[in-house]
Specification:
Order of helices and strands: HHHHEEHEEHEEEEEEH
Number of strands: 10
CATH architecture of the domain at 104-224: 3-Layer(aba) Sandwich
Radius of gyration: 19 Å
CATH topology of the domain at 104-224: Beta-lactamase
Structural class: alpha+beta
Distance between the termini: 48 Å
Shape: globular
Low-confidence stretches: none
Mean pLDDT: 90
């Protein structure tokens, strides 16, 4: 998310043609649209959320492996997790829409978080290497005027009262996957709030969840 391409998808709603992501999705060839845009910053110098970068990753994976993203995921990721019932939208040219076209049940969505919570291991079998888990669970770039950080498609949000990070995937319409290692929990929200640009933040949702957990711990300890 620091490619340096001139891009803006947070000023305007995703239903607004002034939103670069909306313009991309209304184009015939998403890759050509992304690569036609001018550069604005030196790559790696500034965080700018850009769904087009995730689409480029899908294109790169296809070029490198000969497999579309949904095929690669089905064989090497979803399959080992027992995820069989999913739908992944495609772009007009047939590329997997990796920036926001994946449909999963809440149960299957949670498996992704549990895999990371358990260090890449699922049912006593290693699915992801420890090196990859460590790499992707380490913040990579600061976000201007924010306590958040970002890296490898994950948002990193600090706890209010603890050291460490909540790492979260946040998607269109109010989809959230939150992994809280310090509490040993995974939280998943599925939603379709696509017409309201304002929605609860990771910070707000996680703070309410943690308040409930802490209150329950106090009540249990008090009962003892």
């Amino acid at each position: 998310m620091a490619a340096g391409i001139k891009w803006d998808e947070f000023t305007h709603a995703y239903t607004d043609p002034l939103n670069n992501a909306a313009t991309m999705e209304n184009s015939h060839d998403w890759i050509n649209y992304i690569l036609s845009l001018p550069m604005e910053d030196k790559p790696g110098s500034r965080f700018v959320y850009n769904s087009g970068i995730t689409v480029l990753l899908s294109h790169i994976l296809y070029k490198a492996t000969g497999m579309h993203t949904e095929e690669f995921a089905s064989k090497f990721f979803f399959g080992p997790l027992g995820i069989e019932d999913f739908y992944w939208k495609k772009t007009p040219t047939g590329l997997t829409d990796a920036e926001g076209g994946l449909y999963l049940s809440t149960k299957d969505f949670s498996k992704v978080g549990l895999l990371y919570l358990n260090g890449g291991i699922w049912n006593k079998k290693r699915i992801l290497t420890q090196e990859w888990v460590d790499l992707t669970m380490t913040p990579k770039i600061e976000i201007e005027d924010s306590e958040r950080m970002y890296g490898f498609q994950w948002w990193f949000v600090p706890y209010d009262k603890k050291e460490g990070w909540i790492f979260s995937g946040s998607g269109y319409g109010g989809q959230y996957l939150m992994v809280m290692p310090e509490y040993d929990i995974v939280v998943v929200f599925n939603g379709w709030n696509i017409f309201d640009f304002e929605r609860p933040s990771i910070e707000y949702l996680s703070s309410r969840i943690i308040e409930a957990i802490d209150l329950n711990i106090k009540e249990v300890n008090g009962a003892n």
